[in-house]
Amino acid sequence: MKVFKTLLVVSLLCCFGLHASPEKLQQQFIDLMVNEHQFSRAEIESTLAKSNVNQAILKAIARPWEAKPWHQYYPIFLTEKRLDKGIQFWKTHQKTLARAEQEFGVPAEIIVAIIGVETFYGTYKGKYSALDALVTLGFHYPPRAKFFRSELAQLFLLAKEEKFDITELKGSYAGAMGWGQFISSSYRHYAVDFDGDGIRDLLNNPQDAIGSVANYFKKHHWQANQDIAFKATIKGNEFQQYLSKSLKYSHQLSQLQNAGVSIEASNLDNQTSAKLFEFAQPKSKEYWVGLPNFYVITRYNHSPLYAMAVFQFSQQLKQGFNTIQVTQEN
Prior knowledge:
By secondary structure, the protein is an alpha+beta fold. It is built from 15 helices and seven strands. The chain has helices at residues 2-15, 22-35, 41-49, 55-61, 70-77, 80-92, 94-104, 108-119, 130-140, 145-162, 184-190, 206-219, 253-258, 292-300, 304-329, and strands at 128-129, 170-171, 229-234, 251-252, 261-262, 273-280, 285-290. The strands form two sheets. The chain has a five-stranded antiparallel beta sheet. Strand 6 (273-280) and strand 7 (285-290) form a beta hairpin. Helix 10 crosses helix 11. The longest helix is centred in the last third of the chain and has 26 residues, at 304-329. The protein is globular. It starts with a helix and ends with a helix. Mean pLDDT is 93; it is low at 1-18.
């Protein structure tokens, strides 16, 4: 029903001239690729002709997991099965993770958590054609069509640079690919050849994925050896003025404290940038204070639910891995 409504809105907008038709948008895209990126018109037209509009993609984007309340969201990711596989992944790639942590300043548990949440350690890298996904969303999903057309252009450039067959690339319904689910622009800008074989392979090479996730976080200003978030206790009602849907940090820790927000972190500077988050439990709400590194996690996926799941999973991974290390030493 949601997909039908979306397509109906698109049709109405087209009729009243408020939104360009998919055909016109496609022609504009072809002109862009020819004039700005020096592709041949025949190549772009031929490739687009091989794509298909996928209704399942429109259905998927209409019901993202991040729309769930916290108490329904976190059980998807914080499972014993994912934890066990994550610890095994850490053990297998321990040297690579240690090198990534040293070079980029991003702790191993965060890298392992990201790859675990994104693809269950390479198990679920996506079943959709990346080309179909970006064509479908770029030309038939008005709410974010401009963004997805930009990613489609990036996909063409990526395929050309890395010598990929663009019609064979698979990923998520939003066009994210590989072990770390990088969208096309992120692949181009943040992927690294971490095993030194001359190829930036995020599709099949976990070592490159580890280095690239770490590089992504560093480029988004991850602060090495700094805290991420603290659970908070609340007094009074003044704290509510600091709750907002925006992910941007516009307050300092001292402001939250003055509004009745308390955390157990005596080593933090009161001038530290901080943001208050509210997470829904079945019969209550819990509050967390996110620090700058929490904001960096939301650069990977613009959702506080996602960032909190990654953070909490990373702590489980760290505890589990350290326990195994101590047991082996004894």
